[in-house]
Amino acid sequence: MDWNGTEQSTQSDDQHTESSECVDARNTSDADKAENQVVNISLCGSTPLLWRASDIRLCREEVGVIGNLVGSLARQPRQNVRLGRPLEILQEEAQLLVETGKATTVRHKELYENKESRSKAFGLYKARLEQSYKEQRALALEDKKAVLQRVMEEKQNDYKGNEGAEQAVRERLESLEKSFSFPRSAMAVQLCTARAGFSHCPEEHAFLAAEWPMPRDKHSETRFQVYKDLRRKGFYLTAAGKFGGDYLVYPGDPLRFHAHFIALCLPMDEKLPVYDLLAIARLGSNVKKTVLLCSPQYSRDRVEETEVEVVYSSLQWSGIV
């Protein structure tokens, strides 16, 4: 009896050890996969977009890139309260991802080198658009018929002796097929944002093909240096256009924390008027945030300015006594 109990305990311990080893191996493989995964950044003009759900999750959990969802949902394409993919990110976020080797840009221009392929893709797109219009027109007609049918049934129940009203509704229902019009302006265009492996269709390849928008002015370079330094310090950043600054700075994930700072990126040699300082300081006080003036400082004796020191100055409105 004791021997059997000992044997069962040994078997359960072996099974527990094997399951633990499987879980550890699975976690290790998932960590290696996340570490080796390269994010694909698609460009719409100069706007960086993330389309794949795995890329969005990796950027938020591992890199700290937040962004904003700007796509429509498949089941509710016309509402704008809850949005879906793609995720629009800042140019500074995209540039830092590419610079650190964690992302690459998507280019498919080789598919459209000749005019024949472009015209063929355009014709296919027009054919799909026309087919979608016919399907939506048929659905709208069915909805209209259902409404008239319901009205006719209500007339029959309410006015059993009034045959004139019932006849008028019946005639309108019969003539609806010929007189019904569905304007093309009311047509809903569905963007296909979820596919197995996200293999773009031909028209999406041409739409997403774009050159990488490298910063060409001094302000863009200043923003990028400030963003890179704050991310290196562990802060999370989002756009702060509605607060009059460049970035909102969070101590952690924005789902768990409120922003503590409004970052305003300024070159070291740029002069800022006093009334602008007072306006941004008072705005920060009204929204209970500290204003940060962020200015990159380059070393004069360095040939390649790869590492820069960012000088931070905080502003708080204390009122006039």
Give the secondary structure arrangement, pairings included:
Blueprint: H1 2-36, E1 39-44, E2 47-50, H2 53-63, E3 68-71, E4 84-88, H3 91-99, E5 103-105, H4 115-158, H5 163-179, H6 202-208, H7 218-232, E6 236-239, E7 247-250, E8 261-265, H8 274-286, E9 290-297, E10 309-315
Parallel strand pairs: 1-5, 8-9
Antiparallel strand pairs: 1-2, 2-4, 3-4, 6-7, 7-8, 9-10
Helix pairs in contact: 3-7, 4-5
EC number: 4.6.1.16
Biased composition (Polar residues): 1-12
Biased composition (Basic and acidic residues): 13-31
Name some characteristics of this structure:
EC 4.6.1.16, tRNA_intron_Endonuc_cat-like, nucleus, single chain, 321 residues, alpha+beta, five-stranded mixed β-sheet, tRNA_endonuc-like_dom_sf, mRNA processing
Question: In short, what is this structure?
Answer:
By secondary structure, the protein is an alpha+beta fold. It has helices at residues 2-36, 53-63, 91-99, 115-158, 163-179, 202-208, 218-232, 274-286; strands spanning 39-44, 47-50, 68-71, 84-88, 103-105, 236-239, 247-250, 261-265, 290-297, 309-315. Residues 13-31 have a biased composition (Basic and acidic residues).
Structure commentary:
The structure is a single chain. This protein is of the alpha+beta class and 321 residues long. The protein contains eight helices and ten strands. It has helices at 2-36, 53-63, 91-99, 115-158, 163-179, 202-208, 218-232, 274-286, and strands at 39-44, 47-50, 68-71, 84-88, 103-105, 236-239, 247-250, 261-265, 290-297, 309-315. α8 links the parallel β8 and β9 (290-297). α4 packs antiparallel against α5 (163-179). The longest helix has 44 residues, at 115-158. The chain is elongated and about 90 Å long. It starts with a helix and ends in a 6-residue tail after the last strand. Mean pLDDT is 76; it is low at 1-13, 15-20, 22-31 and 193-198. One of its GO terms (molecular function) is nucleic acid binding. Residues 39-107 form the TSEN34 N-terminal domain. Its EC number is 4.6.1.16. It is found in: Nucleus, Nucleolus.
